[in-house]
Amino acid sequence: MKFLKIFCLFILLFTASNLIGDISTKYVFLFIGDGMSISGEFATSLYLYGTDKKLIWNSFPVKFFSTTWSLTSINKSNPDGYDTSSAGLLPYPYYSTELADNYFKNTPPTDSSASATAMSTGYKIQNGVVCIDNNGKSLQNIFDILNKKNIYNTCLITTTLFYSATPASFSSHNISRNNYKEIAEEILSVTKPEIIIGCNEYFYLNDFVKQNGYYIADSIDIKNTLPFYTTDKKIFVTLSNYSVPQPKKMKNNPGFSYKDNALSFSDIVTFATIKLLEKKKPFLAVIEQSDIDSANHDNDYHSMVGSVYELHDAVNSLIKLIQSNQTDMNWQNTLVIVTADHATGMLRFNENLAKGQLPHKMIFAGKNLLKIDRTVKYKSKNHTNELVGLYAIGAGSELFNKYIGLTHKNSQIIDNTDIFKVLKEVTTK
Question: What is the 3-state secondary structure (H, E, C) of 65-109?
Fold first, then answer.
């Protein structure tokens, strides 16, 4: 009997080893800029380089636009989710009409849970729910699929609460995105990503985290050696010293001011990548820069530029690591995807700003606007269904090509549900 158990264990390990050896796309990174519009990318590129399309992902070989609408967006006047006759085949600032702006103002937009669920499951759902369809049935997301196969580790990184809408939609199922405690407990006890990095306001969860096999750390410590940590342990990092840097207003000399002892987003992503690689197992990392959305809701151009820069810098650092020959990551086994869950704010330009140039911050006294800069204008404080960017490089990135124009003919548009299809194909071959 003992011999039989040892033999079965050997067969299991041998099979898993062979399966890993056959995987062509071992490492998958999905970066999500929450609320990152094309106009926000445009603004950040202008600030950094004085011209458009200079962010790191603009150099990727795969570059498309993605629709983000949810079932909540569907009504009699908008039966297809995204109406190209009104909205156009290109996003602002490459297509600009009053008709398009009115369409975005009047069409119910997606929210983060519906959009992230589309990316994680391949299904459109109503706003407000997490991986649950209209019949109340749980939808299988990409983390569910990978957990069943037990070949890939998974990782969640966010600059907001780890149980908020976007990370939740890759790692839980709930009738409401606001059921934070239920979502947090499902992530920690059922889905169990190998690494979780994010904010946490439920301190009672620390004991629950330990009970579910996690090594607990504070983000203050991630640049140091983690005492008593071993690679067989999962990692839960509470994000406590991250804040968005503020861009400096210095023409032709862009730069950013960080708070003392604050981590950069690049620090966080690099830490997680190294720890995942130490585990000697393929992985899928879902990485959200959530502060872009917060800045656009507040119509805060400066913080928006700082947040998009942080995403740009983190992706750039990862690209350098992949190309450094210091790890086994390379473009034959690693896929990097950058996109947004939706646009926010309807940022518009009256004139293009120069390198290092910023508009004046708007100053309010109560509801009274005391200072305004007319070089830029926000037309909303809400989400919109504007097209967002989809960029990919590396192993399997060419798979996006087969989805071009399927939903909107003669366009460079895919749907956000196509992201799930590519993730599933590259991780379940």
Answer: EEECCCHHHCECCECCCCCHHHHCCCCCCCCCCHHHHHHHHHCCC
CATH superfamily of domain region 27-359+374-427: Alkaline Phosphatase, subunit A (3.40.720.10)
Lowest mean pLDDT among 13-22, 356-365, 377-386: 13-22
Instruction: Fill in the amino acid letter for 98.
Output: E
Q: How confident is the model at residue 223 (pLDDT cuts 50, 70, 90)?
A: confident
Is 302:358 a contact under the CB 8 Å cutoff?
A: yes
DSSP 384-418: E---EEEEEEETTGGGGGGGTTSSSTTSSEEETHH
Q: What is the mean pLDDT of residues 407-412?
A: 93
Provide the CB-side half-sphere exposure for 237 (13 A, CA): 30
CA angle 274, 277, 281 (to 5 degrees): 155
Instruction: Give dist(CA 290, CA 311) in Å, integer.
Output: 10
Strands 234-238 and 195-199: parallel
